[in-house]
User: Fold these one by one.
Assistant:
Number 1:
Amino acid sequence: MSSRNLILAALRENQPEFSALPDLDGPISLETEPVEKFKTLATAIGSKIFEVSNFDQIKEVIIKQFSAKARIISSFEELAAIAETDIKGINPHLLENTELAILKAQLGVAENGSMWVPELNMMQRVLPFICQHLALVVYKKDIVSNMHEAYQILGNSNTGFGAFIAGPSKTADIEQSLVLGAHGPRSMTVFIMN
Amino acid sequence: MKDHAELSEEFNKDEARVDWHDETLWFIREKRDKAVHTIPEWEWLRETGSQIKNNVLSNLSVYLEQFESNALANGVKVHWAANAAEHNEIVLSILKGHQVDRMVKSKSMLTEECHLNDYLTGNGIEVIDSDLGERIVQLANETPSHIVLPCIHKKKEEIGDLFHEFLGTAAGESDPQVLTEAARQHLRETFMTRKVALTGVNFAVAETGEFVVCTNEGNADMGAHLSEVHIASMGIEKIIPERKHLGVFLRLLTRSATGQPITTYSSHFMKPRQGQEMHIILVDNGRSRQLGRADFRNSLKCIRCGSCMNTCPVYRRSGGHSYHTAISGPIGAILAPNLDMKDYADLPFASTLCGSCSNVCPVKIDIHEQLYKWRQVLVKDGYVSPVKAISMKAMAFTFANPTVFEVAGKSGRWFMKNFPSLVSNKLNPWYKEREMPEPPKESFREWYSKNRKIT
């Protein structure tokens, strides 16, 4: 018998009597001001927040912080003046010198300051991880209270890949000292769009 | 092989280090408490997480088949491994199939359980661990001492020495910021040049065929998205029924582990990247056997947060290596005897049974009760030393017989008073690090029978 069938047979033999799934309609607390809560949590985990109402304001912030020579990549056509907006077909290894990526988050989660980014918004899967700095743009209306609401919105969509991203990459493996910029981005900027 | 008590004794030689280790882990436990107290529905979340896992255990075969067919439909190759050896062979055959002799790996306690690194190295494959803590213990030729914080037992000066030797940092450099930056540069080169990346799996969803990997560093993503071949190794108990259940577990996991509201990255892998090959290895290695043990099957509900270790008064003072198994601490002590009752018979005794582990467990595993039950199984089946078995039998006999108990108490008090060296000596483990108490003049029973007559 194959290992597959051996394992399945052993499980069928050994698993206990069927136990029903619980429903998820529990006493889940909702945020009265999800945007404020999101800002608090995102700041606490090391993100920088800017509230903006158009792409010119985003450009202004970027130009102040990054030199004209820095490689910037963005999924927003509106930022074509300061960023590459088409990296289709590029070998992902060639993105290693990306200084900043500016991508669109599908939703933000107030309870933990994370944002969901599906593969399509990443342009290439590795981009939000390999860039030195990451900026995500999330619309105010897309900020939800908690993870339960987030998954309700995602449903069973199959986007190939997707990630909740919360702040810059970090580690505390050396004596519990927090260091930002482990393997991924050294900083996270969040643009909350009105 | 040295047992838990002997290995703890070695760790305990450096008292200042024990205090530091103890305080560091307790600090993480306190961070967990703070995070938990911000969620009013925390107990509901734990109960719900527990019930979802109960359902998973009762229907595991069905969920695994469902997961397999959905993963296949997503273009992922699915392998089944009955044991550690088969898992390791599958990994090697994938590497050989691509004529590759170097691999980058992100954190996977399952591969530690399977001793994958040793096996691959023995077969001429170079493996580099990319989680910072794991890389540090790998350079030190050690194993992780904690499932979430692999090098929690190491001082920054020791890490500085390792990095000086292997990564060329300045001698005496021990600033965590500088050391982390050196590891970042070194591992970036690794990510850029490895064709095969192996990651662990935190959760796999039967309904969608996807799996979720949680990291703070981004190392799993760097490895996987730059590789031509991504191998994900998972224990079969990592399955959950539906995607919406991730909402429950992602809320529980990191708050319990480190007190963070969520890990920096919760990556959902559904399909391979265009042009990439993706493999999932479903590993049993004793899990189906544990599922058949009614008293111990709950250990399979574990989501590997490590909170039972951070809170455990024994773990904090004995260190993870004293458990001489991949998964240390209270949860490891109930998982390991299933793998080998003889080798790990000491571990269920490495506990005070205080129950703190069960209190913090995010999926409500009755850890301390299982530790107690394992002790009974191990003694009954003859896996503990004859001395311990005899003394436990003698104790049981004494406690069950009031007359013997009274005589034993009296003679104990008499001996302690007249020949204190009989108990206050090195042969008595209770004398270590302690002054023995003054023997009481009389037992409570004697006091009670005297005083009751007066009133």
Number 2:
Amino acid sequence: MFAQGPMGRVQPCLTKEVSALEQYAVEMLHITKRFPGIIANDDITLQLKKGEIHALLGENGAGKSTLMSVLFGLYTPEEGEIRMNGKAVTIRNPNDANDLGIGMVHQHFKLVECFTVLDNIILGVEPTRMGFLQKRQTRARVLAMAEKYGLRVNPDALISDITVGMQQRTEILKMLYRDNDILIFDEPTAVLTPQEIDELMQIMRNLAAEGKSILFISHKLNEIMAVADRCTVLRKGRYIGTVDIRNTTKAELSRMMVGRDVKFAVDKKAAVPGEVVLDVQHMTVASRQHDKDAVRDVSFQVRRGEIVCIAGIDGNGQSELVFGVTGLENVKSGKITMCGKDITRMPIRKRSVGGMSHIPEDRHKHGLVLDYTLEDNMVLQRYFEPQFTNAFGVLRRREIRAYAERLIDQYDVRSGQGAQTLVRSMSGGNQQKAIIAREIDKEPELLVAVQPTRGLDVGAIEYIHQQIVAQRDAGKAVLLVSLELDEVMNVSDRILVMYEGEIVGEFDPKTVSVEELGLYMAGAKKGVDRQ
Amino acid sequence: MKKKHSSILRLEGVQTLLASLLCILGGLLAGFIVLLLIEPSGAWEAITSVLQSFFRYPSAKLQLKYFGQTLTRTAPLIMCSLSVLFAYKVGLFNIGVAGQYVAGACAALYFGLALRMPWWVCMIAAMLSGALLGALSGALKTYRNVNVVISGIMLNWIALYVTNMILSMDGLKNPMSPYTMQLRGVNPGALIPQMGLNTLFGNEKSVTIAIPIAVIMALIVWFMLNKTRFGYELKATGYNYHAARYCGMKENRNIIVTMMLSGALAGMGAALLYLTGIEEWETTISSVPAMGFNGIAVAFLGGLSPIGSILAAYFIQHITMGGGNVDLSVYCAQISSLISSLIIFLCAFVAFFKLAIQNHLRRREEACAAKAVKGGEDA
């Protein structure tokens, strides 16, 4: 299939026969795309067969998005050629891609919230007669398609009322309605429950069986192993190889992706919980979106030396729970105590100075001032301390620089111009490392970490998990909120599952199965005895 | 060689300067075209007289005198542009600067003419009244989420008519004209001291320490924004409101304080003009004085930097004065305002030109990268 060349690069052996050319729905041959200072795609070849599920695997920054943007006509490659069904094509813009039958389900859905499922499906290609919408035939066609591929949707439900899984099925129907034959799924499982993931996998298999060609972008090896036929791996903008899933293993794929062996389990000793650091009693937090409370009568404790993980599907009140604990949102009722002090109504600054560190869910919205330099972001939680501001309110620039440089060094934060780099220009992983350095170096009593590894590559995830475990071992209390089940199972000492604003179960990661957790996360089971 | 050239271009300050110069050039060109369309024969003479401004006067003494007047009018313009850029750093577009300027004029003249206070009391009163108006916009923004642009425009008109009303009172307004009484006659103590500066400018009476005060204020604003904890907080709030909240800054208080300080700067600007006695307030005026709005253009032309503001304010004032020299037998009276407003209009394109420069740099770099790789392959 492929031959191992020098430097670990693999040259694809292109099949020469004419008949073989015909079997590829899309071929991207020797694509090279350069940006100033970086080669985003360096001679990449991707060949998608008709009716196959082809996984595209790579870490963040490996060049997956650039390659897809090239396929969609958003970027013009400097070198290389795109062929469809053996014929060379030029794709200048997304409309061209659409005309060629290429469709994509984006990671963040592009749906109109206040429209129905059916309206969203026909949006942009509405069938009209004399300017009037003709929805009846369309409805029949959509229902027939849904039936054929097993895509359960209610065509008349509003997008804002349906589950994420159904929103995704709406996106898939949108592509099918436009007669797209090449379907691209960009990290489709990030927002789904284990059960919904299984369902999606079945849908993808159905689609492939009907002759659709599927490109499946992911960095989750389990899913690739479960559903894909072949897999192309990219690393740092380079083509590493294309393998048959039947003849490979998870370990081999991860080695190709990262360039070294990766440990999947986090090394850690058993937890030795000490006294209670965070005590939340009957906390209720109102929701900004609707009248129902986002967090309802939630009580839990976090002790010194343990990692308590809040698991659940996105949007079940985890964010609001953290907002309540950290003070970003006022709690409606209940009592929060940290290290014996009542902090329920305490301002954010006082909580922070009192020993709370917060790695926020959204690093761009909350965690960083993107237009500030790295050094200015490093002191975001401490700039007012006498160490960094003199008695006249003037910043001690030299101290700030020295402090930032120490953190950059210690936590290996990489950037173009060191402490003076604009944070906006840094990679996501290094931005996250900067936040983690800042929050951990504050020497907190309580570390609240919300999805600390979101969107990061395997190497960075490994590092961040080590740091969190190190904090636990240093006797800090850690409250971790995560949507990734692997992370939940590997890192935590205790799991609390949240469903619709309530804690519906408490588990020991050593004794609970992923499937069991999934049932609680989906609300199918609730109410286990809690101590 | 080439590398060095592009690295200079990459400096933020150089880009801003270049973009500002391009704007000025564009504005002059547009003005010239308008003049050509109206009457080609006098166009060149008209545009040069705009640019020459006071240099057209025959004697050195007269030149100095009008140079002094230009500087006197530059001082309030600097203050207005400081007001705009200060609020802009916190992410607020303070179009209410014009109203805050008017409120400042009102307080300065009322304290000077009615209460017979010394100049520094008048100036503080002007700052406070501008601050009050600014704080009102800020409070409406934080507590009622009213856009500062909307509240600013509304307050501009309110300030204008309240000012006209107050300054029309007996003892304030000259009974023979629509203007207020001359400070020089009523209360010379309210005039900003000259400290001998006037002797440098052909004994032009209006030249006072208002000019150095404005420059010092620009330096103070620069220091505050870039060197202090306060500036760090304000800019963080402006760049990312949510992050400011996350790290426990009092983001709502910051917005009100910013608008207050912004208003105080504008109010002080009015004091620096009216307390020199260079002109009186026209109590029948039915449009908000252009000084505040010009402050917006100056702030952008100066690349939103306090130091840039000083230079940009001088330039705008220079051509505004020069506009008065256009031959009115050839062109209609509005032509001078038209040319200066064309240039001011083009000033809004600083950001546009800056982007164009950056795009040009990026494209060239991409081309270089491609070439370098190709070269490498050949070797």
Number 3:
Amino acid sequence: MAASALVGASGFGNWARLAAQQALTQDQLLEFDTFGNVSLIHVTDIHAQLKPIFFREPEINLGVGPARGQMPHITGADFRKAYGIADGSPSAYALTYNDFASLAQTYGRVGGLDRVSTVINAIRADRPDALLLDGGDTWHGSYTCHQTAGQDMVNVMNALKPDAMTFHWEFTLGSDRVNEIVESLPYAALGQNIFDAEWDEPAELFKPYKFFERGGSKIAVIGQAFPYMPIANPRWMFPEYSFGIRDENMQAMVDEVRGMGAECVVVLSHNGFDVDKKMASRVTGIDVILSGHTHDALPEPVLVGQTHIVASGSNGKFVSRVDLDVRDGKMMGLKHKLIPIFSDVIAPDPMITKLIDEQRAPYADQLAEVIGHTDENSTLYRRGNFNGTWDDVICDALLSEREADIAMSPGVRWGPSILPGQAITREDIWNVTSMSYGEAYRTEMTGEFIHTILEDVGDNLFNPDPYYQQGGDMVRIGGMGYRIDINKPQGERITDMTLLKTGEKIDPAKTYVVAGWASVNEGTEGPQIWDVVESHIRKQGTITVTPNNSVQVAGA
Amino acid sequence: MEFSRRDTLAMGLGAAVVTVLPFRVNAAADDQIAAFTGGADMADAGITLTAPEIAENGNTVPISVDAPGATAILVLATGNPTPGVAQFNFGPMAGSQAASTRIRLAGTQDVVAIAQMADGSFAKASTTVKVTIGGCGG
């Protein structure tokens, strides 16, 4: 396909211009001149956020090696400049972190699956056979999702009628539960890289791909589950399964579907953006990668070779519409729009609102209980390569409630934000902590071993080869400062580790009390992290965020 | 609480064995390569080595080698205390010159496969397999 065949590569400008008007309507958000003969609708990394939330995009998202300064490793003013977004505009609020608290007052909450449903319905009105594709991390991330072992999300998503899905955190429900849900799913559960661990053969329950006849064309959708599930998440919860990138098998699947007459090949991926970019450079014949896992929201697709990579954000904040012109056995053109779900602008679909409320009703009192408040200058958020303010609160809770020298909190990318002066409910705490292995351990580690952990996690984030990255952020540390040079090799990145309470250097031979949570190892003991955080916030009453300068970053 | 490095790995962040310095290359690996090839040059093409980029379990890492026309394939884990993993020999009646096995890796290191071809030439493939503590995935 020649680049010139692309027509209107992005619908982004349509709503960026609205900044000047200080007005936003549902029609404007949905405006799209239907193109070609096939439509894809992409949602990903919803993390069980059924209701509208606030979500602050990252301030720090560093790329190393060839990824340095490339999308999605650009934030704030540089990001706005790259896409021509005006300061203070709706798109500035949706896509960048600056002035978050004040813009949130203007533009309100984002997401909500009842609003997402309205957008899906509108696209289906234009194109009744549009494909709805879910990139995974759907059945994880909230109080009700945890209590129902994902059933609340399954019920609501089924009502949206997806055509296919791939997976990551779903597997932390345990393989028995995942198998039970997948067997009953009314749509395809895909993953060319989901293998039987014992035989190293494709798992029977998950198909590598599915064919769809759309607009008179044969479309193949190939699934790519998160490659590093047994490493980033507890392997003992799904011991029957093995994953990996397996790009040689991806190439074999692309060749197979092309051989069977696929005119357009779409990969529904949970690789993470940089891994998708590398995969697109190694595997030939993929037209579109719908990218998930790293929670990037990009207003335009990134083109690698002849593969268009679409990133659709997280937490229900965005829906991507991708219209394709598939003719004469190949994809001739693509038109794309990243639709932000402004919850006060897009009318909820009442049928889905009712369904969501039914899922939540049995837990309404638990969800709504106010545990504390933020003060008038404090915003709680997580996203970013290093500590977010929510992580600081969690680390403070671990330090005080578990009487530790040092706290460790996982560098996950999910978890909505809390505005200044906002009530913090139990639901809010669960939104940033809930998981099936939330036990808060307390143990002793030598300074040397703490260094080993930081180097190991640092390499999972800053290895210049994306195939050796896992897609999370740096482990969050409380009670200890350090310096990181992101361009150094593993073993040399982390220096100047300092115990904050004494100002002393960390002694490699000395033992420190460390509290943390989300251990991937079986048999971890301790109270659940949400109880630890709730107890801490209740004692504080009002949460005040203070600047955290304990991590010095070099080489950015 | 009794504390050891092993316990901490188990309790804290995972059970994989971790070395602080990746890419330790055991001198014994070079010796074994020299013994196998007699010091001959090795081509880059002609052998395929498939291994995960990051091991799901460093104790049992699935790898496969495929070298059409080879008479023997040597597999080495260059960072293990004992680098030798396997040598596969193929007779003239062998239907294919490919093999799969699982290997144990002491830490992040390069896995190397060298094929001896019927004409006496050699081909080499190498890939880095990372062994990590894990956890913290987004």
Number 4:
Amino acid sequence: MRFTRTRATLVCASLLLTLAACGDAGSDDEGSDVSADTDAASELEDGTRMKEIADDGKIVIGVKYDQPGLGFKGATDDVPSGFDVEIAKILVSKLGIDPESDNVEWKETISDNREPFLKSGEVDLVLASYSITDERRAEVGQAGPYFLTGQQVLVKKDSGISSVDDLKGKEVCSVTGSTSIDNAEAEGMKPRGFDTYSECRDQVLDGAIDAMTTDGSILLGYAALNPDDLEVVGEPFSEERIGVGYSPESPEMCQWITDTLQESMDNGDWAKAFEATLGKSGAETPEPPQMDPCKS
Amino acid sequence: MDDVWNNFDLVVRAFGMTVGLFLAAGIASLAVGLPLAAMRVGPVAVMRRAAATYVTLVRNTPLLMVFIFVVIALPRIDITFKSIESFQEDAFGQVFISAYFFRATLALSLYTSTFVCEAVRSGINSVPLGQAEAARAVGLTFGGTMTQVVLPQALRATVPPLTSVLIALLKNTSVAAAFGIIEAAARMKYFNNRTTEDVQVFLLFALVYVLLVEVVSAASLVLERRWKAAR
């Protein structure tokens, strides 16, 4: 009798283990599957920064940690996830580096740090909802865009604010060093800058400020996390062209990034990356944007 | 640097905000710090202990923590100071002091008033005990002793340490940059992100800070000269 009970327990335990293993395998598939392309690495020209990184076998990518759907790292996550991260994985795999391995370092890069990190070489690439602007292009390299979005506002439900015009002369928060702050100022709002979007979102949730403003794609991610309390209102009042930042010292990267992104747009990897991240909230996969030519 | 010169109004407005924070928080911390010092040296044990507890608690807390408490923690328990804005809108039809400015001023004043209190207390302690005893001997009350005899002498000795406290306050306003106020430090960061000439921008902003501090110390020097007494 006792023997059978022990055996039953063992069987149960092993069953549970198998189930647990299944669960694990499932979560691995969350992002799109991108594996290292070893052939591509050997095709890189000698003397370029890409070749250097490929030979080194290590790369540091600057991403956001606080933007659900774009670049987000929860307290229990080992690596960040989101559309920016998926695009980064496509680029990394083209260097012959396995994007799932420890050879890729995901470094949190808040808006204010993007240019300094690129200039000092702290990160090799920045994919952190990085809008392409002429001012930034004068300082660092920006390739793309790989995504288009527009600035909107996030408010508390039932706030009575339905458009950007309702916020003229009112305080709105965003993050310092972002284009959103300049746009908000131009629209007649009083911008209040914080370091991260999550701090800003908390201020809205706590009622300390009327609204938060930045790219619609970022706001939708937050609204999806708190659907009962927050909503995105108003028409987009700017066009943000999200691109990849690279060091100003290595202009040769531009063509390589653009080509790699173009390839992913053509072969469907770009669409897969979107569906696995931002598309989850039900948003339709848009047409890939037309990318800027690189200055030679 | 052209970017800075072309947008010089932004620089002026940013330093205007710094000076505004300094003046508002400076007046508030003097207004709170002086009575606090009187409480600490006063004859009522309860007030003495209450003031001592407040000073110990707040002075030993980093300014950043005080800011986090006022700007992030208080709104979470529904203390947002938004009513200040609606009051102004009702009375004047316009908002002069925003809730953010008020919260930053509050955090700075809570913190600085403890230093003001201790600077004033050190001044009071510098007045020989005999002075207070003599004042009481001629029949003055505690209030009379303080306002007629002790404080006039104490304030004279308080000017140098109080100047240091106010200079520290002027520079501490830059902490507000991390809490949504676009003052000089935040503006400097903004320009540094747009230009390759980081060093020049930094030097320009540092220079204006030095100038502002020089104005404060010059004012204190004038006061010191005027109140100088032969001893």
